[in-house]
């Protein structure tokens, strides 16, 4: 089964992201706006049970931190993806790094960690240019506190659902 680990921002941020995702993200209906902190990986249920214990400890050892979004950016020319750029705070990188230790499946990253919330993907080059060209002029002033992350799994229809939520600084 496919799993992933993500942070879901507040409803306010999700509403902002969804206002674009409805038009520009074909995965709009499959998962709410999120910040991926560990890319999707394959695991058996027995592995997940062991992993949950480790995730609980990581959450317990993590303090809430700020999620800051000031602008839109893009992965062009690698992909025609447009996203809300999440400022790279140290606590976010530390959390993500912990999820790529040998204790977890797929210890190597496929891509460098770029904190973001996707708002458009699989766009044609023209559409990407138009969307990114207009959105990069828009300034966002969002700062909120993140206090949890979620272990997700993918259903047969391609949608994602929460397996478990891990709150920072607490025993779950």
UniProtKB/TrEMBL annotation:
Catalytic residues in the record: 34 (proton donor), 116 (proton acceptor)
Keyword Aminoacyl-tRNA synthetase among UniProt keywords? no
Annotated motif HXTX 1, positions: 34-37
Keyword Hydrolase assigned to the entry: answer is yes
What is the E.C. number?
A: 3.1.-.-
Pfam families in the record, alphabetically? 2_5_RNA_ligase2
Specify the domain of life of the species encoding this protein.
Answer: Bacteria
A molecular function GO annotation: hydrolase activity, acting on ester bonds
The protein's UniProt keywords, in alphabetical order, are: Hydrolase
> Where, by residue number, is the motif HXTX 2?
116-119
Checking InterPro entries in the record gives: 2H_phosphoesterase_YjcG-like (IPR050580), Cyclic_Pdiesterase (IPR009097), YjcG (IPR022932)
Spell out the PANTHER family in the cross-references: PHOSPHOESTERASE SAOUHSC_00951-RELATED, PHOSPHOESTERASE YJCG-RELATED
Member of which family? Belongs to the 2H phosphoesterase superfamily. YjcG family.
Question: What name has this protein been given in UniProt?
Answer: Putative phosphoesterase GH754_12365
Query: What is the organism lineage in this UniProt record?
Result: Bacteria, Bacillati, Bacillota, Bacilli, Bacillales
């Amino acid at each position: 089964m496919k799993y992933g680990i993500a942070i879901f921002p507040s409803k306010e941020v999700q509403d902002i992201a969804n206002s674009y995702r409805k038009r520009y993200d074909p995965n709009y209906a499959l998962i709410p706006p999120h910040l991926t902190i560990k890319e999707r990986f394959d695991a058996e249920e027995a592995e997940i049970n062991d992993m949950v214990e480790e995730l609980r400890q990581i959450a317990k050892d993590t303090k809430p931190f700020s999620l800051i979004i000031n602008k839109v950016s893009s992965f062009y020319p690698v992909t025609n993806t447009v996203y809300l750029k999440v400022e790279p705070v140290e606590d976010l990188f530390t959390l993500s790094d912990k999820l790529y230790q040998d204790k977890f499946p797929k210890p190597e990253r496929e891509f460098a960690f770029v904190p973001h919330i996707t708002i458009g993907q699989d766009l044609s080059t023209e559409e990407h240019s138009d969307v990114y060209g207009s959105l990069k002029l828009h300034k966002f002033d969002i700062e909120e506190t993140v206090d949890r992350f979620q272990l997700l799994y993918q259903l047969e229809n391609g949608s994602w659902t929460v397996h478990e939520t891990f709150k920072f600084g607490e025993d779950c």
